[in-house]
């Protein structure tokens, strides 16, 4: 099978030059992973990764002779970043796992693509392609990719014991790529249920990164619901519940909101979420603010005025989901109106008659009246 000739990365001048350089030196150069998987599924890909039987030293030597810059970004694991023009390309030597402990692997370089494929996680990720678009399918994963089935390579339990993060990757890939008609692979779920204790070995940063990617999928609700049923979600976020995620996604679609992992984290709930997922300060502040505003009586227009349209719409969607109420589209219009409103009174309008705390109190009183009027009262009316 050949990929369509119009696949963008098959026409990327830098990538083709890199492949040609390695092949001219007698080495294999195969596109691998996400770019190939996505091409098979007809999905755009952002990253271009290349696998080769050349060792890192050989890659460096060949690229230097061709005038390409190399950066040893992960040389201990066989990965170099090759910069051609201003574009970076990751090149990784075929590898074979020697030992694994659930978090780290000791790898040996290999000259066989089959060995490299066997150490990957899912069959849909063990696809390679030559520079002319010819698919290389060492493990027979193409049917799974075409059918959008997320299946562990060989024994699911063995793959999980090699790296417990694969439990979360299973749900993330299911959310992004699986056809819901097929459901979730029973062998994978059984293996996951047997290895829940391994999740404790994962760092908060790794868990947070995977959860953020998972919740950024168009509709992660089915995957998160299964995570809860098999016991993964409560291990990650004590007290979190999946029940309101699907209603939130419905509300998002009604408001034409893009997927937002932080908004979705708020609807899941749970204890110490920012710490357990090691959220950035900005994301932690956002989830805290949204969580606080959902339970207030602040109306849509005032939300838009005080916090901006994006935050107001987030709160409107969250309230509809958490309170299980129909979405009022008029709220979106009110939030939009509020976000554009400008309070017509300034401090100097009340001076010198008022100053200090009295001035602040009067401004607050007038602003409250103005908001209650639907932003209609004019400066003259407020000061009259």
| CATH topology type of the largest domain | Beta Polymerase, domain 2
Query: CATH architecture of the largest domain, please?
Result: 2-Layer Sandwich
Helical amount: 40-55%
Strand order in the sheet with the most strands: 3-4-5-2-1-8-9
Total number of distinct structural domains: 4
Largest sheet: 7 strands, mixed
CATH hierarchy, class of the largest domain = Alpha Beta
Number of strands: 9
Main structural class: alpha+beta
Offer a concise description of the structure.
By secondary structure, the protein is α+β, with helices and mostly antiparallel strands. Helix content is 50%, strand content 11%. It folds into four domains: 1-147, Beta Polymerase, domain 2; 153-234, cca-adding enzyme, domain 2 (Orthogonal Bundle), CATH 1.10.3090; 237-341, no CATH class; 344-383.
Structure keywords:
EC 2.7.7.72, cca-adding enzyme, domain 2, seven-stranded mixed sheet, metal ion binding, 50% helix, nucleotidyltransferase, Beta Polymerase, domain 2, 4 domains, 11% strand, Bact_CCA-adding_enz_type3_sf, alpha+beta, 9 strands, tRNA binding
């Amino acid at each position: 099978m050949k990929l369509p000739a119009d696949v963008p990365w098959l026409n990327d001048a830098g990538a083709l030059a890199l492949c040609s350089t390695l092949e001219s030196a007698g080495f294999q150069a195969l596109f691998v992973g996400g770019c190939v998987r996505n091409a098979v599924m007809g999905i755009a890909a952002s990253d271009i990764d290349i696998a080769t039987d050349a060792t890192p030293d050989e890659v460096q030597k060949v690229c230097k002779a061709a005038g390409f810059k190399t950066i040893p970004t992960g040389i201990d694991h066989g990965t170099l970043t090759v910069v051609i023009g201003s574009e970076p390309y990751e090149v990784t030597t075929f590898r074979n796992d020697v030992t694994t402990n659930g978090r780290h692997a000791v790898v040996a370089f290999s000259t066989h693509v089959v060995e490299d494929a066997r150490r990957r996680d899912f069959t849909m990720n063990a696809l390679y392609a030559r520079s002319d678009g010819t698919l290389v399918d060492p493990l027979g994963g193409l049917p799974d990719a075409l059918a959008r089935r997320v299946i562990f390579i060989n024994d699911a339990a063995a793959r999980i014991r090699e790296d417990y993060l694969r439990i979360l990757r299973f749900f993330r890939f299911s959310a992004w790529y699986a056809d819901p008609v097929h459901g979730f692979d029973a062998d994978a779920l059984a293996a996951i249920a047997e290895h829940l204790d391994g999740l404790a070995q994962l760092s908060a940063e790794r868990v947070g990164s995977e959860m953020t990617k998972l919740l950024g999928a168009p509709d992660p609700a089915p995957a998160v619901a299964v995570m809860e049923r098999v016991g993964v979600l409560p291990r990650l976020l004590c007290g979190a519940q999946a029940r309101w995620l699907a209603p939130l996604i419905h509300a998002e679609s009604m408001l034409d909101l893009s997927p937002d992992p932080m908004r979705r984290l708020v609807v899941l709930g749970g204890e110490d979420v920012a710490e357990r997922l090691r959220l950035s300060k900005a994301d932690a502040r956002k989830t805290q603010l949204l969580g606080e505003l959902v339970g207030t009586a602040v109306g849509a227009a005032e939300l838009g005025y005080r916090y901006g349209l994006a935050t107001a719409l987030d709160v409107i969607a969250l309230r509809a989901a958490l309170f299980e109420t129909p979405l009022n589209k008029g709220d979106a219009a009110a939030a939009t109106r509020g976000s554009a409103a400008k309070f017509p009174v300034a401090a100097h309008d009340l001076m010198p008659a008022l100053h200090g705390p009295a001035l602040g109190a009067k401004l607050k009183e007038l602003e409250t009246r103005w908001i209650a009027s639907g932003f209609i009262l004019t400066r003259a009316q407020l000061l009259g």
